[in-house]
Amino acid sequence: xxxxxxxxxxxxxxxxxxxxxxxxxxxxxxxxxxxxxxxxxxxxxxxxxxxxxxxxxxxxxxxxxxxxxxxxxxxxxxxxxxxxxxxxxxxxxxxxxxxxxxxxxxxxxxxxxxxxxxxxxxxxxxxxxxxxxxxxxxxxxxxxxxxxxxxxxxxxxxxxxxxxxxxxxxxxxxxxxxxxxxxxxxxxxxxxxxxxxxxxxxxxxxxxxxxxxxxxxxxxxxxxxxxxxxxxxxxxxxxxxxxxxxxxxxxxxxxx
Length: 256
Description:
By secondary structure, the protein is of the alpha/beta class. 40% of the residues lie in helices and 19% in strands.
């Protein structure tokens, strides 16, 4: 199995197709199987060398239990380590939710490695609000204490539904690793946003109460960004909408 190494952490990745490089970074709890099972890879591999990787703590990548290991600077370095392992100088970067937040840090630290940014359900502003207890951390404590089934039911209560693919993913999770991740706050890069010159395409479901407003506002902070909404989609549903998203992304890239 192919792995890239960033310091002492091994990052699993898969490659399909041919053409310009496009690296895919899923959201929190997701792994490369979801890019495949929801149809993204099949729709993209005829036009791109598609590189999907498991973020640290997820899938087949290493799962450290120390909170410091999930610093976003390190996680951005994981994406670059994958490109380095493949000998790829530049790539389009497509990230959703946590994968999108990692993408902002990649753009800040490694702008010379990017052709474009496609980011869904993610902003450069960090996590809005300061609710305590942290609801995400509560989910992972539930997973450690009661198992994945309890987490699935709680997410179903919050989001209305859980796809079979995502339910399987939740059963594969290491909840101790998720608990370590949850001790970090996503960084706010609002002051750095104006320096991100790479062409950007942002999107979010308009029923995504956590992200839609902030993603839309982020467009005005970057000099070369555009935004579109997925009507009626919440945060989880928007992550799976390959049939709607891929045509938008292909059109965006064709215009570059």
